[in-house]
Write a structure and sequence with these properties.
Length: 95
Amino acid sequence: MKKYTVIIVLFLLVAAALTVPSKQQYAEWLKGHIKEKNNSVIINLGVDLLGTTIIEKVTTCQSYIVLSVCTTEISDSEKIKAAGIFNHFIPLQFP
């Protein structure tokens, strides 16, 4: 039984390491969240046109082999933070 548990854990770790999302994927995910929260056509158009570029410039991502943690600094006191694993993001901190 222990043998199968070790094999399953190793498989999950390898799968997680191979599916760590990139900074570009984070920017697309964050754009989707911003557009969900806004009902303004003008803001959504601006997010579509400039969102990826702006988000990537104010975002830092740290890779931890099986996951990445991306932080976007909106201002000195406001940050958005999310963990990326298996090509998905889990929100950790939202203003």
